[in-house]
Amino acid sequence: MATQLTDSNFEAEVLRSDIPVLVDFWAPWCGPCRAIAPVIDELAQEYAGQVKIVKMNVDENPSTPGKYGIRAIPTLILFKGGEVVEQITGAVSKASLKQMINDKAL
Q: From CA 103, how far away is CA 86, in angstroms rounded?
């Protein structure tokens, strides 16, 4: 299960993480967000210890998505060393997400 992030713990959990972090920016009312939620949870298990996979509800935490210019959800941003290394918007396949993680994070 992917960890839930808030504006208040984003810096500690993502920007100061010693391993890469994939953040899923989502909202409960978003159909494509709900569609990829099981994939996000599967990836969280598959990459445990290698890549931290977390979710942020954009309705409850408007500050962080605003900082990263998120205008559509789901948006997935991969951070490494506190920097954005890749960003994908929309419901994408598990294979696409795995390729992004393997290419950019590991």
A: 10
